[in-house]
Every structure is written in C-alpha cells, then in structure tokens.
C-alpha cells in the first residue's frame, strides 16, 4: 500500500539570478528548506510571490502544510512604524503574498511553521509589532554577526510547549536576525534567548501554528519539520 506524503508549501524569493549562460529573474530558496521537508517525510512545493494575493486560498486548498521562510525585513509600514535607519531591503511582493498565505492558512487551520522572517511576519499578521534593530536593546550582534555568517545564541524553550516537545530544553541555535518580535497577539512565548529575546512563539488554540527566530533548516535536528509534516499528515487524513 502506498502512503500519500503531505504536500508542504514553502514561500520563496523572486530574484535576478545567474547560472550557466543565464542571467534572469528566478524563483529561489535555499535548498536546505526543501531537504528538511523531504527528510521529515513531506513533499516540498515552492510558492513564489504572485501578483494576485487572492490566489493564496486556492493554492492552499491543494496543500497540507505551510512554511513561511526566512528573508528580508518586513516593511515597517505593515505594523505602523517609520523605518529605523538599520531597516532596509523589505520586499512588498513577499509581504503581500505571504500575508495572504497566512490569512488563508488561518482560515483552514493549516499546519504552519514560520522561520526567522516568517516568525516576524506571523506576529505582524496577528496585529503585533517588531523591534527593528535588536542590538539597540541587547547591546550585541550575536543574533546576526553580519554578512552570510550565522550567530550562535543560547535558547531555552518553555516547558510543556510544542516547541519544547520537538527540540528539547535548551541548545545553541543558529540565528541570522537583527530584528525580533516585540508583540504577538494570540501567541504564547515558547522560547527565549538568554538576553530575553523571543525566539519562538506558538498559538495554543490551533493544532500546529508556531514560529521560530532561528534557522532549523540549517541544523541536523529536524524536529520542527517532523512535527509540521506529522501535523500535516494528520490534518490531511
């Protein structure tokens, strides 16, 4: 008997890219995300930003789970703030599309995981706000040392949370974020860094709706992705 593997949508960039003889617009995402979904037993489906956000509901009717992936800063106008001097590079195409995906996912109670920017966008979708430049508060840059380097941050999970069940008590997380969630209506904190920064949050009134600031796709531990795929399989059964 063949068991159907859950289809998990992954949000992507649309960028100018070069490979071989080509220099063209392309839909791109680090392959670690798709590899993590495959390793957890799911089938990854890339969801590039499209012009019509109304398409999100139709797309998600065909999927069993969603990952809102990492990337650029969220446009501060989305949460009613002027831009900090260190806030830059926001992508209106991704903001619009991914907020539409989140709204459609919420309507369906679709199992959803936010990663880094994805966590921040989930907070904004719920009516929350962001700290636009985390070093202003914590006094260090260990969450994002700069360039393509990941920071190493001690994270402690909240006992009895879903995140705790999936990843354990405390560990060094690989992070790459200069912003953080300041307010998160409808979510409970599921993990914090030693400096108090919210590193994970989850909605307790939904079957699987959580987000983390670190980058689990770059780690050997696939607990969060296994949890997502298991929830997606259960929801689709």
Arithmetic mean of pLDDT:
94
Q: Indicate the radius of gyration in whole angstroms.
A: 17 Å
Whole-number total of structural domains = 1
Say what oligomer this is. single chain
Give the second-level CATH assignment, the architecture.
3-Layer(aba) Sandwich
The termini sit apart by 15 Å
Identify the CATH class: Alpha Beta
Given the C-alpha coordinates, what overall shape results? globular
Name the helicity range: 25-40%
Q: What's a quick, concise take on this entry?
A:
The protein is an alpha/beta fold. It has one domain: Class I glutamine amidotransferase (GATase) domain (Rossmann fold, 3-Layer(aba) Sandwich).
Report what the structure shows:
The protein is of the alpha/beta class. The protein has helices at 31-39, 55-60, 92-108, 117-125, 135-138, 162-167, 223-236, and strands spanning 7-11, 13-19, 22-28, 43-47, 65-68, 112-115, 129-131, 151-157, 170-175, 180-183, 188-193, 198-202, 209-212. The protein has a single domain, classed as 3-Layer(aba) Sandwich (Rossmann fold), CATH 3.40.50.880. The strands form three sheets. Strands 4-1-5-6-13-12-11-8-9 form a nine-stranded mixed sheet, with helices on both faces. The protein is globular.
Blueprint (SSEs and pairs):
Layout: E1 7-11, E2 13-19, E3 22-28, H1 31-39, E4 43-47, H2 55-60, E5 65-68, H3 92-108, E6 112-115, H4 117-125, E7 129-131, H5 135-138, E8 151-157, H6 162-167, E9 170-175, E10 180-183, E11 188-193, E12 198-202, E13 209-212, H7 223-236
Parallel strand pairs: 1-4, 1-5, 5-6, 6-13
Antiparallel strand pairs: 2-3, 7-10, 8-9, 8-11, 11-12, 12-13
């Amino acid at each position: 008997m063949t068991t159907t593997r859950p289809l998990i949508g992954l949000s992507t960039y649309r960028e100018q890219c070069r490979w071989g003889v080509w220099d063209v617009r392309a839909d791109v995402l680090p392959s670690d995300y798709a590899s993590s979904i495959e390793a957890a037993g799911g089938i990854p489906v890339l969801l590039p930003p499209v012009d019509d956000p109304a398409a999100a509901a139709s797309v998600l009717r065909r999927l069993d789970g969603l990952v809102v992936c990492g990337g650029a800063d969220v446009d501060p106008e989305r949460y009613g703030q002027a831009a900090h001097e260190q806030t830059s590079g926001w992508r209106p195409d991704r903001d619009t599309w991914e907020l539409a995906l989140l709204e459609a996912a919420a309507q369906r109670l679709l199992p959803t995981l936010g990663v880094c920017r994805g966590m921040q966008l989930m907070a904004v979708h719920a009516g929350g706000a962001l700290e636009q430049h985390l070093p202003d508060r914590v006094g260090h840059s260990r969450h994002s040392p700069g360039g393509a380097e990941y920071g190493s941050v001690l994270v402690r999970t909240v006992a009895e949370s879903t995140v705790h069940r999936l990843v354990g008590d405390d560990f060094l997380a690989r992070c790459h974020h200069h912003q953080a969630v300041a307010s998160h209506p409808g979510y409970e904190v599921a993990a914090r860094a030693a400096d108090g920064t919210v590193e994970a949050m989850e909605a307790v009134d939904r079957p699987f709706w959580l987000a983390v600031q670190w980058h689990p796709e770059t780690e050997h531990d696939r607990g969060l992705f296994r949890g997502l795929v298991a929830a997606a399989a259960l929801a689709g059964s």
